[in-house]
């Protein structure tokens, strides 16, 4: 039996965008999380995936955020869950993080992560951020966090620094 049970909720965002050769655009056409997980060696961890949304976070609505909150609550309701990771677009990740922080009292880490460059692009930060988020579920205290680029930042008060292309404490 795995020592940890992690739920990953996919919502889209740059981390999961793929290149459409016909249009020349990067699009959210469905989750590519399983492909990313296939590149990782996860000892003593069982991962379950909830494919919730496939949207650029700039197009997320209040209803979408309510769905993320509900899906997170459902994941937390399982007594076996040792952590929740939410793949999210970076443009509005902080808005969702603040909502989760205000409405949840998690007993395990709830971690939002994304990427500045899509997984399938050269020099993508997607796999690094996913790996760090998964690791964070086993070492962080209960709470809501943003994990990216070697940092675990606890909500409230996380902001995106568009110039540096990362997240910082407010």
Beta fraction of the residues? Answer: 25-35%
Assembly level: single chain
| Termini Cα gap | 40 Å
Unreliable residue runs: none
Task: Give the radius of gyration.
Answer: 15 Å
- Give the integer mean of the pLDDT values: 91
* Bulk shape: globular
What strand order characterises the main sheet?
Answer: 4-1-5-6-7-8
Helices and strands: which structural class? alpha/beta
Number of strands: 10
Written as H for each helix and E for each strand, in order along the chain, the element string is EEEHEHEHEHEEEE
Helix content range of the residues, please?
A: 25-40%
Largest sheet: 6 strands, mixed
Q: Can you count the helices? A: 4
Question: What's the gist of this structure?
Answer:
The protein is an alpha/beta fold and 170 residues long.
Please tell me about this protein's structure.
By secondary structure, the protein is α/β, with parallel strands linked by helices. Helices cover 27% and strands 32% of the residues. The chain has helices at 33-37, 62-77, 93-103, 126-139, and strands at 4-12, 18-20, 25-27, 45-55, 83-87, 109-113, 143-148, 151-154, 158-161, 166-169. α2 (62-77) packs across α3.
């Amino acid at each position: 039996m795995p020592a940890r049970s992690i739920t990953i909720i996919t919502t889209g965002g740059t981390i999961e965008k793929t290149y459409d050769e016909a249009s020349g655009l990067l699009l959210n056409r469905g989750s590519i999380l399983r492909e990313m997980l296939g590149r990782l060696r996860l000892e003593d961890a069982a991962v379950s995936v909830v494919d919730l949304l496939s949207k650029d976070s700039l197009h997320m609505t209040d209803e979408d955020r309510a769905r993320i909150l509900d899906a997170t609550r459902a994941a937390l309701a399982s007594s076996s869950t040792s952590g929740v990771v939410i793949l999210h677009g970076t443009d509005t990740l902080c808005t969702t993080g603040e909502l989760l922080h205000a409405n949840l009292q998690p007993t395990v880490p709830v971690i939002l992560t994304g990427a500045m460059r899509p997984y399938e692009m050269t020099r993508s930060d997607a796999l690094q951020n996913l790996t760090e988020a998964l690791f964070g579920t086993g070492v962080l205290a209960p709470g809501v966090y943003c994990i990216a680029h070697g940092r675990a930042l606890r909500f409230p008060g996380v902001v995106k620094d568009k110039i540096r292309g990362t997240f910082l404490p407010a």
